[in-house]
Amino acid sequence: MKKPLLVAVLILVASGAWPDTGVAQATANDSPSWVGDVAPVMALKCMNCHRPGQIAPMSLLTYEDVRPWASSIRMMVEERIMPPWHADPRYGEFGNDRRLSDAQVQTVLDWVDAGAPRGEGQFTPPEFANATDGFLLTGVLGPPDYVFRMEDGFLVPAGGPDLNLDIMVPTRLDQDIWVQAAEVRGNFNVVHHNVVSIIGPDGEYARTGRLASTVPGKQWDRFPNGSGKLIEAGSTLRFGMHYHPSNEATVDTSSVAVWLVRDQITHELHSSVVADPGLQIPPYESDYLSQGEFVFETDAAITLFKPHMHYRGTDMLYRVTYPDGRTETLLSVPNYDMNWQISYEFAEPVPVPRGTKLEVIAHFDNSPENPWNPDPSVQVLWGSDSRDEMMEGWFDYQVELEEPILPDHVRGTPQVP
Ligand code: HEC
After folding, report:
1. Whose C-alpha lies nearest to ligand 1, atom 17?
2. Cα first-last separation, the chain
3. Per-residue pLDDT for 9 more than 70?
4. How confident is the model at residue 252 (pLDDT cuts 50, 70, 90)?
5. Quick one: CA torsion of 21, 22, 23, 27, rounded to 10 degrees?
6. Which of 69, 72, 76 is the pocket-test mutation for ligand 1 (most atoms within 8 Å of CB)?
7. Nearest CA to ligand 1 atom 12
8. What is the DSSP string of 283-347?
9. Contact 398, 267 (CB under 8 A)
10. Torsion-angle region of residue 154: left (phi > 0), alpha (psi -120 to 50) or beta?
11. What is the tens place of the pLDDT at every residue in 257-312?
12. Which of 155, 103, 124, 130 is nearest to 39 (CA)?
């Protein structure tokens, strides 16, 4: 089909009969354009963070926004620094994987190399880019069902030491709700982190415990279909705030948005950790090994992993050994970066029959070659200060309930506004 057409074109060109517009068309098609090729990729992979009010330093919504950054974008994309994602692609399939495909990387490189042309026509940023509530998940799931906000702003004074305090936020819920996803936001000029816990109507720390949290680089908490976190009617949320004052006095009014489950609950969620609190990293040691393990006592399915170390952490690997002796690597993070606390959410929960062993294997670099190392000359022990170390392989898993639960709000009971 194609061949005869090509011959015809060649003849036309050779005879000088190619119309001007046709030639322009042909070159435009060779190199990618912002409108036709690059913007759609950025809508999927960049705009969630690179838009006004989000964590990234600049917006990448429009051609005018993007053009001045073209060469920086080229470098970041080629080196795969952006979008941030540190899992070795050989292992695991993750629902929140934001890597670009090789073809998408090539498109961006070709586009910059061609002078970053705009191209004809218009590109309309996706709906979520206009969301004014500031929640990233609005871009994925639509507007939240509830937003629970601190009732009064908290004035964070200028300068001074970090502040840790609990702020109680009543939910005023008069029915139980089951949460599928939650996202914590605040004034990120001063909020270093915020761990939101559920205090039940009896005033006790609820069995669900932690609802969601924000730490630098984290986006949201999302629970797999068929599971969720219960907030009972009359519960209060405890915002465990850690403020890092800026140069100016600043008000923070943190909030947590929740999206409700849309189906029955068939699984209970658990969060656990493999840690090595006994670690002792000698001075100048460049490849210190730290490891730990966990054995599943019931049939379960792993839903996410979240590696946590500090400045000297270099890599972390999660490996399971099934009861039949088979071994499988489920996540490898070969270049850990403490600035990004990424949760790796499995596209499908990974079944682990009772008796499966989970091993977490990590390395630390306390040598002067590690550019982040605050002091290679000291022995490093466990501690929450970033100059100390932590080896924590967090993981969530789900266990099937004996009886499924059908939440009232799924049954169609009217919701509280
Ligand atoms: C998860 C959120 C997130 C995503 C997704 C993301 N970025 Fe970023 N980006 C950031 C943050 C935060 C920074 C600032 C990093 C820093 O200061 O270390 C940044 C920095 C950058 C920079 C460097 C800016 C400078 O100051 O030099 C470029 C270029 C960039 N991003 C391009 C992209 C592109 C292109 C994509 C999509 C292919 C993308 N980013 C996806 C959060 C994100």
Report:
1. 57
2. 61
3. no
4. very high
5. 100
6. 76
7. 56
8. TT-SSEEEEEEEE-SS-EEEEEEEEE--TTEEEEEEEEE-TTS-EEEEEEESS--TT----EEEE
9. yes
10. beta
11. 999 999 999 998 888 899 999 999 999 999 999 999 999 999 999 999 999 999 99
12. 124
Per CATH, 138-263 and 268-403 having the same topology is answered: yes
CB neighbours of residue 376 within 10 Å:
18
Q: How many Cβ atoms sit within 10 Å of the Cβ of residue 260? A: 18
Query: What values do phi and psi take at 94, rounded to 5?
Result: -115, 130
CA-73 nearest atom, ligand 1:
29
Question: Residue 403 is encoded by which pair of tokens?
Answer: 């009886």
Order of strands, sheet of 205-214, starting from the edge strand that comes earlier in the sequence? 163-170, 236-243, 191-199, 205-214
Closest protein CA for atom 19 of ligand 1: 56
Give residue 120 CA to ligand 1 midpoint distance, Å.
Answer: 26
Q: Tokens for 377?
A: 């000359």
Give per-residue pLDDT as tens, 130-173: 766 678 888 788 899 999 999 999 999 998 888 889 999 999 99
Ligand 1 midpoint to CA 82 (Å): 6
- The residue among 316, 313, 353, 309 whose CA lies nearest residue 331 is 316
Give CA–CA dist 145/182, Å, rounded: 10
Domain map of the chain by residue range?
24-130, 138-263, 268-403
Contact 221, 181 (CB under 8 A): yes
Q: Which of 34, 49, 128, 215 has most ligand 1 atoms within 8 Å of CB, for mutation?
A: 49
Question: So what CATH class is 138-263?
Answer: mainly beta
Nearest atom in ligand 1 to the alpha carbon of residue 339 is: 18
Cβ–Cβ < 8 Å for 135, 185: yes
Of 96, 60, 53, nearest in space to 77 by CA: 60
CATH of domain 268-403: 2.60.120.230
Ligand 1 pocket, CB under 6 A: 42, 45-46, 48-50, 55-57, 69, 72-73, 76-77, 82-84, 98, 100
Question: Could you tell me what percent of the chain has a pLDDT over 90?
Answer: 65
